[in-house]
Amino acid sequence: MSGDPTNRKLTTAQAIHEALDLAMDRDPTVLLLGEDVDDPSGGGVFHISEGLSTKHGEHRVRSTPIAEQAIVGAAIGAAIGGFRPVAELMFMDFFAVAMDQISNHAAKLRYMSGGQTGVPITIRTAAGAGMQFGAQHSEMLESWVTHIPGLKVVVASNPADAKGLLMSAIFDDDPVVTIEPTLNYWVSGPVPEGEYTVPIGKANVARAGSDVTVITYGREVSFALQAAEQVAAEGISAEVIDLRSLVPMDEEAILGSVGRTKRAVIAHQAVRRGGLGAEISCLINEHFFGELQSPVVRVAGPNVPIPYAAELESMFVVDANDIAEGIRRAAK
Amino acid sequence: MPERDVLERMFELVTTINVADERFRTLLTSGRVRSTYYSPKGQECISAAFGAVLRQDDYCVTMYRGLHDHISKGVPLRELFAEFLGRVTGTCKGKGGPMHVTHPDSGLMVTTGVVGSGLPIANGLAWASQLKGTDQVTIVNFGDGASNIGAFHEALNLAAVWELPVIFICQNNRYGEHTRYEWATSATQVAQRSVAYEMPGVTVDGNDPVATYWAASEAVERARSGGGPTLVEAMTYRFWGHIFGDNMRYMPPEERKAAMDADPAVVYRKWLLDGGHFSEAELAEVEAAVAARIDDAMQFALDSPPPGPEELYTDVYKGEVVPA
Description:
The structure holds two protein chains of two kinds. By secondary structure, chain A is an alpha/beta fold. Chain A folds into two domains: 9-190, Rossmann fold; 204-331, Rossmann fold (3-Layer(aba) Sandwich). Chain A is built from twelve helices and 14 strands. Chain A has helices at 12-26, 52-56, 68-80, 95-106, 109-112, 142-146, 159-170, 220-232, 251-261, 276-288, 310-316, 320-331; strands at 9-11, 30-34, 61-63, 84-91, 122-127, 152-155, 176-181, 188-190, 204-207, 212-216, 238-242, 245-247, 264-271, 297-301. Chain A has a seven-stranded mixed β-sheet with strand order 3-2-4-5-7-6-12, with helices on both faces. The radius of gyration of chain A is 19 Å and the shape is globular. The two termini of chain A are 35 Å apart. The relative contact order of chain A is 0.13. The relative contact order of chain B is 0.16. Helix content of chain B is 45%, strand content 12%. Chain B has a single domain (4-305), classed as Thiamin diphosphate (ThDP)-binding fold, Pyr/PP domains (Rossmann fold, 3-Layer(aba) Sandwich), CATH 3.40.50.970. Chain B is globular, with a radius of gyration of 19 Å. Chain B is α/β, with parallel strands linked by helices. The mean pLDDT of chain B is 97. Chain B has a six-stranded parallel β-sheet with strand order 2-1-3-4-8-7, sandwiched between helices. In chain B, strands 5-6 form a two-stranded antiparallel ribbon.
């Protein structure tokens, strides 16, 4: 990460707000659109865009009807027309409503046009369980979008990365989905002032270790770090890789680490079946079959919709204990 | 009465669409090329009328039945045919095909293969023009079937709320794929749906280029002057069914025959002659020039190579080559 080191702390929500504000300051073609995003509508349900329409104008920060196809379609058209729109889809579950625009159009128009029309949009969305929002406002659906060629997908685990990744996404010339773990909006951390970017496609070694590699992203990074602490007391040294970018994925970072540890745990909140863990596990096996000291372990959500009751929801969510258990299995 | 040069331009466009469609169908039936083709024959006057009204820098979004719209927006015929044939010299290097023709230099911004999906994108293009303060307008073409999908309603509502310079053109050809209009659509006319969005809506005889020209002029003028969107429903008929080569059993033969007997291109030609607007020799001259241009474009396409294998991996992301 470039930018000055600082002890200034912001929540992830504040860090994202700052990135949007800086991007709009820098480039008049940056636009925001989504449900409730302008100030007369309250600056967004998570108040992330609060103040931006007052500062940058309601023509650049536009609240929309609750109409996800219209939102993403308008972003795509404006992008082809020369702008860099940032579209907010309130929860990732609502991607289902807009998927035709995301998959068939945003992702494919550059290819289908032989490179003539790129779609430099950013789609911001909140995702993840833990707030008792129930089955339709809680899913991590990264596998839906990582499967579609033409999209880039990033997930930040901390406020500083959330700001830097969003800056990269907005000024990327292709469509980028930024998945924002909902609970992280209220998590604070040091955030450098001013403009900086976290490059898309570069993982971060969140903790160095030598016995087991834990590959994870988003909210699970903090749980993986707690798990690494737990197992350290048992004499297991776990390395934690925060992918930050799912497409493109930093395969070099994964393979470099697993090449040393020969043991891997993949942790994500999304359900196990068809989850990104399967893809990463296969990548590891393609490179290290026969060299691994133990089977690749996946720590993931059970294959169920996300329940409402707090007791069940907490069972669903992959936490530090689950990851620690995974590390122990891999270390055997 | 439109100016004489407008009548001539519409005749030239109608003729170009017809000859292009004939040649392409011949090419398909001869077995020389394979393609999925949605013939626009029967609907050509709608595009020709809008083509005579729009500027090159206006934006157009269309759909898989789009050859008439591509031609009327001014996509160069050589590159257009080459794209239809999947050749590297095509507008999209052969990677889009007939359902995804794009040619920004002509203002042809998106061709979608998904029913109704162009409308929300057209809003975005219109929004871009509104933000830039240009007086460009955006048109988006779709069939009657698309008026039943959610994207249509989301798009009309947003366009009305944001007062976007966009024109929604429903080419009502009486069928959504194989299903008759009446069996799928609750409104007697699609234009009625504009009322719900407090947007001007008009139904016009899409087989009458002059009537369509006036409707197009009014809608374009409204959009260009900041008056917001319009829904134009142009009544028409498709001669060759949903996809060229389907058995068309779902279209009553007498209905199809009546439509073909009233071929709008033939009717327009006769009208131009009977009204004394053009002489036979003048029209024949236009037709000969069009035929020569189509011949040239077709030969260019047939002589062009397919895209090379490296093209499989490019244009997924800007400036990157996806690993094999």
